[in-house]
Amino acid sequence: MTHISRIASVLARRHPEIEVRPGSTGTAAYAHDAGTRPRVAHPDAPGPTVAFPATVEQVQDVVRVAASLGVAVVPRGAGTGLSGGASADVGQLVVSTDRLDRVLEVSPADELVVVEAGVVNADLDAHLAPHGLFYAPDPASYETSTIGGNVATNAGGLRCAKYGVTRESVLALDVVLADGSVLHTGHRSVKGVTGLDLTSLFVGSEGTLGIVVRATLRVRPRPVARRSLTAFFPDTLRGAHALVALAATPVRPAVVEFLDGPTLRGIDAHSGSDLSARGGSLVLVELDGYGIDEQTRDLTAALAAAGGTVRVESPEDAAHLWHLRRHGRGVGRGEPRWFVGEDVAVPRSVLPDVFAYLPELERRYGVEASAVAHAADGNLHPLLSRPVRADDAPDVVPPDLAEAATALVRFAVAHGGTVSGEHGIGTVKRDWARLELDDVALRAQHAVTAALDPHALLNPGKALPVLEPRTPLDGPVPRAAPSTHPDPVPTTV
Amino acid sequence: MTHISRIASVLARRHPEIEVRPGSTGTAAYAHDAGTRPRVAHPDAPGPTVAFPATVEQVQDVVRVAASLGVAVVPRGAGTGLSGGASADVGQLVVSTDRLDRVLEVSPADELVVVEAGVVNADLDAHLAPHGLFYAPDPASYETSTIGGNVATNAGGLRCAKYGVTRESVLALDVVLADGSVLHTGHRSVKGVTGLDLTSLFVGSEGTLGIVVRATLRVRPRPVARRSLTAFFPDTLRGAHALVALAATPVRPAVVEFLDGPTLRGIDAHSGSDLSARGGSLVLVELDGYGIDEQTRDLTAALAAAGGTVRVESPEDAAHLWHLRRHGRGVGRGEPRWFVGEDVAVPRSVLPDVFAYLPELERRYGVEASAVAHAADGNLHPLLSRPVRADDAPDVVPPDLAEAATALVRFAVAHGGTVSGEHGIGTVKRDWARLELDDVALRAQHAVTAALDPHALLNPGKALPVLEPRTPLDGPVPRAAPSTHPDPVPTTV
Fold first, then answer.
1. What number is the ipTM of this complex?
2. Please, what CATH class does the domain formed by A337-423 belong to?
3. Which of A283, A374, B285, B457 is the S-S candidate for A379 at Cβ 3.0 to 4.6 Å?
4. Any A CB within 8 A of B219 CB
5. Spatial distance between the Cα atoms of A8 and A23, rounded to a whole number of angstroms
6. CATH code of domain B226-327
7. Domain spans of chain B?
8. CA separation (Å) from A369 to A282, A342, A401, A404?
9. For each successive 10 residues of chain B (493 residues), what is the average pLDDT?
């Protein structure tokens, strides 16, 4: 009898108040996140055991039991991740934060909230609206993803152009560590330098250092004004160069999104819109705050000087455009296709080079390539695809497409960028992460991880490439080998 | 022959190109930082050995030699710290970053600079001005302190009200680790989530994890407009309550400083100004950016509603007021006094409680208390003092003053605040840090430190209270006992 098969019964006996679903076909959904769901359903595939603690103490109890049985723990929010960070083997215990869904405090005077990890991003924002406040980080999954998951991945979104990523909104965390103790990091004050900045260390750690159970988050007053502008350019490259020109203005929009020509055509095909009739690429901007007319004037001048056709959109048209940007990339219609969605980030000046490289990728690898970008951050979401062919293996990304994707990641890293701007490494990007992390960096990463989770109990094998045992940093123990979970390529973006 | 007495000769033999000053009375200044200089000079006291590497490779060489001899390394920028973080025993090797003073790159398009650690904050800003850019973090020491020191302490300043502390301006670091290897963290892109956020971990680590040798920093366009406002209030508490009222407006000034009544009187006595004739406390604000008239209107309304007498200051008057704020607190005139300068931070709503508590401290401990605050951040710099008495020990803070200071720190921590908003823990605040870090937090802090510096080579005993060996986190080694360096109380603020 393996330990995982015992964990449900041990938990039921010792902690009957905690809801636990033993591994079965009914928990199969917990084997994957949104990025690693197999293309072909396997109706008989069993899932992992899943625990649903409803209090911090219950999370501690679950972790202690798992540790005592040597069962690895996979923390999970809404499972909206795109890199496999919340995927779990049948031999692992998923700890869901679904029941930790309370907003514990809203303090307008201190511009902070205290929430449990399972609170949904959009629900928090709705909770704040009556107070005239908002929570800035808005990942694409904001309608369903949880704060705990946002913290674990250091989620970005559109508004981080002005307001920063999740890290910039986290003041303090409560984290259940691998030994079941609760670590309090940070404070309720904005500033604080007592000890190492463990708050930032946990943000983006993908569940490998501890389970975030509570967060004290910085919130902000809703801006006095918001305004959306479009600038259409004759082609993709003219638009990409305009993004660089924007750096020369002092305007700092809340959102700067860039949609290339193929993306506009895909949206039109999917949504019946006419964006591609208006131009060959689109810079879509949201301004906010004081001096909205002055901001509009300076931004319009810069975009027009760069060759754009600029228009201030009505609130209704703006809402429609933002909906199209968030929801319609033209994926999923027509012939069956393989898709690989990427998440590289580059210095902003490199954006035109990336967009010039996409057609080269298409020629060299026989794929189609398009990209949207959170342009102010240099964060691109390229989409590479090709039709499914009869001789393709069913659940493995075709080698030609994988090679094209790797080439693009190499391009970004070689230009001072990164493998992942906001989605995280999970299991899907472990090999790519090795392109960015040299031996010294990888040893340091593993050393810090092992310091807080010496037995690799928490989300083992995620977030970092394997460290060869022959090159440990002076002292610490390398983490265990990665999970054997198969990782099909992400098919959503 | 001890190892420290050999290190100068070993370095001279192996690396003659590196400037090294053997420990002598000529290096006595390196035994202290600005916060731990003894009140009474000891002309015969020898200082530590000091190395002045001029390249990253030379830093690596110095660290390797020190490691081979088992000599602890104390990284040092300009020595302007106020918590003893750069203080060194005669048995330790100071590694100065003085010769690492090059600005390596300015990229306006990517809004970043690459600098060596020894570049002075103000020199960087001057370097950026012709490009229309500025570097936001502006600690009080900005005219002399270095970027490396700013990074090591996560320095704050006045402008972090709007632009964040040093952490928010650091994109990437090159760090020499305890084994002499160079760790590259971060990237040139704004976003990036590959692996743990080691960049943030090194920011504020006070030289205990590695020696920062290069930094890639985010810079910003100079604002289109700047405007300074004063709001004088009848007394300290009315002013402090106005700070809370500001949270209800959507205006986010670049700087919000608060000067209480005793501070205004001290400045007047020191500088011949007439601030206290204008009111009993002062909220001094700098607005910047777009919509400066709208911002002025909304802020003026809020401050006036809170009982303030508001005035837009001319650029000349504003410059004089900011000079008074930065340079004149009335310290150092008149009878000899003991001073303790603190650096607590609290949630902004607690600011009135802190200012109400200061007179209570005065009564209970027989001290005088005043405070300025970086008010938008809730970061206070209280100044506690009393006259020197004949029976005071010469270099030890009097117990009554120390108790008053500890009471204030306890007050801040009990209200969700922190021991140190921006100065760091160093040696001076190690005991106070224990008020904030519980056993779990302290074990986690030491575990992470030991993971990167397993032999406690780098700045041992700084930044963290000692961890009792009986309570290690599962696995890691606690750091060595703190240095035996005596730490007089800071006398500057």
1. 0.94
2. alpha beta
3. A374
4. no
5. 9
6. 3.30.70.3450
7. 3-96, 103-221, 226-327, 337-423
8. 17, 11, 10, 10
9. 83 97 95 88 88 98 97 98 96 98 97 98 97 96 97 96 97 98 96 96 98 98 97 98 94 98 95 96 98 98 98 97 84 78 96 98 97 96 95 89 97 96 96 96 97 97 81 36 33 34
